[in-house]
Each structure stands twice: as C-alpha cells, then as structure tokens.
Specification:
Helix content: over 70%
Radius of gyration: 21 Å
Shape: globular
Amino acid sequence: MHANRTVTGHGPQGLPQVAFLLLFPGFFFYHSALGLGYIGAFAGGYFTPAALVLVLPLLFAYAGQLRRSGGPGPGELAFFGFILYMGAMWVVEVAAGANGTITRSHLLFLLDAVVVFIIFRLLDVRAVSLQREALVCLLLMSAIVFTFAQDGMFYLGNLGLARDPEAVATYQGFSRSYLFVYLVVSVRLQSRTARLALYLLAGATLYVNGARSEFVAMLGSVPLIELYRARQRARALGLLCAVALLVKLTLMYGTQYLPENRTLELLDLSQSSSATLRHQLTVQALETIANHPLQGSYASYEPGSYAHNILSAWVDLGLFGFLALVALLLWPLQRLLVQCFLRRDMGQDVELPLCLCCTTVLLLLGSHHYHDMLIAATLGSYELYNSRYRADSNRSSQFSTSAV
C-alpha cells in the first residue's frame, strides 16, 4: 500500500527544503533566542523579513517547475486567482481609507501566503535530509519548551530576559511553527512505535505551550495517519475509539496530575475568558454579515478584534470571497477523503495534504482567522500530490496500453 522511496533532497529540492527550515523552525529558534536575551530583535518579527528574502528565489524555482510540468494546474490557478482577488480588495479598501494597521497586516499575509504555497508546492517530504533535519529541529523545539516552562506554561515573555520583550512571539507563533514541523515529520515515520513516541512528545509539548487550537489539531492528525496506514481499518478505528475514551477519562479524572495551564480550559470552555471573547467576536461578525451580506465590511473592526473562524473571510471579502475560500478547501478535502478511505486509489504521498487539509478546516471552523498560513500550505501540498497522482496515473495508462 505504501511505497518507500528514498530521496536525498539535493538539486532543485534544496531551496524549498531550506526555505521550510528557515521559516518554521527558524522562527521558533529566533524567538527563543530573542526571549532568552541572547539577541535583540534585529529581524523584527522574523517571518515576513525571511519571506521577503526567500520570495524571489522561490518564484524562480516555481517558474522552472511550471515549465517542466507544462504549466499550472487548475488548483494553482484557483489559489492565485484568490490571492489576486484579495489583493484587489486590498487596493480598493486602502484607497477608501481603511484602517492602516489592518491593511498592513493583510498585505504582509499576501506575501507570506504566496511564499508558503510555493514551499509546499515544491517540498518533497520524502527527502531523507529534510526528515532528519526536521526531526532534530522538532526535538530541540520540545527541549526548549520543557526547559523554559514555568508553572506548567511556556511563555518566554514572562522570563524578563528579553532585550526587546515586545517583539517576543506569543504562544501562537511558537505553536504554529511546531505544528508545521510535526506534520512534516509525522506523515513519513514508518514505525508505529516511533509514531506513538512522536504523538506523546508533540502532545506534551503543545500542552505545555498552552496552544489549545494546535493541541487539538495535533490530536486530530493522529486518527488520520493511523487509519490511513492501517491494514484493517475497522480494527484500527475501534482501537482509536478506545484510546480516545482513555484520554477523555484521564482528562476528566487525572487533571490533578497535570501541570495547570490554559489548555485545560478545553474541558470546560464556558469557564474560558478566551472562548467567551471569541464567541462575542463571532456574534459581531454575524451582525456585520447580516448588515452587509454581499459585499461584507472590510476592516470594520478594531485591529485584532476579528472573528476567529472562517466567518472572518465573509466580513472582509464579502460573500464571493467567502464562497471562493470554502470551495478552495472543500474540493481537495472531499477528494482526499474519498480516495483515501473509500476508493483507496490515492497514489503516493497523500498523508501530508490530507492532514493539512483536515487540520485547516478544523481550525477555520473553530479558532483561526482566514489569514492562516495553513491554507496556503494545504493548497500547495495538495497541488504537489495532485501533480504526482496525475503523473502516476498517466504512466500506468501508458504501461497498460503498451502491454496490450
């Protein structure tokens, strides 16, 4: 069912691999050094400056890939069409005098989204060098979280060591980097024992990090990976249900043995001030949509006071933009689920786009703004898988024809 192909990671693959490591583990290590006072904020928030350095080389590499493959696929055209639509909305709203803080963040997101899409469109997670380096980074990231956690919570801003404390990333930034690296590593581990160890490590790390959304996303990836790999899926499903019940019982009756932090609020969101605020922001978004159902109301909220779910796209981009984003995500989601779990004709390397797509949809429904780099990573990874799937199908058809 699974072909084990070894890829070295040299040649054209080297750039997206280096870019991935610079952006995601690099962000984590930069802000760790910043929070511990080893460096000052010489690169600002890091991610966007790094994306600016990488964007031109990645565009050249992507253009070369398109020449070799005969041009962009429908999904790629749809993604860049959506980016152009967002850019056009940005131009119109800037001209109309929209809030400068919000429009600046939207412009930076467009850059970040293009860079992340190209990285995952070109990134070969089968590369041995990538898997080795990503695993080392993941272990180092976990070690940093456990070493510098205080009172069961990892937040370097509280240590008082940073030279520029206002520049230190929040737990969301650290958890985003960790989740990306975890997904790239977890989908390629062949040993069930190694995967179990990774699940335990990642779950504990994200728990201590206090990132509830990424913690839930990581847990949600486990059944996807294990069901995909299982030879007897009914048996695997029963085992996963038993494990889920055990986890639930542990959380219900064993919380006194866990370090207390905000992740435990998942057990009772009614007591969570963050969940209450997000509910209020969702209600405000629904009111805005009711008053402006077609065109939305771009940047009609205070900076940071956006709906933490996919309704944020409707508010900023109107009904058309919202439906376009839903279509961009639902098309690969339904195809991946059908091919993986019903038809079993998924071809190679489907696990990363499957996990990214399900994770993205889950987080957009519950906690993330539509300016989420998971969207770009999902669509880039899916287009890479789709191009390989088409190539494998064409080779199979040519072989069958020649055999006849």
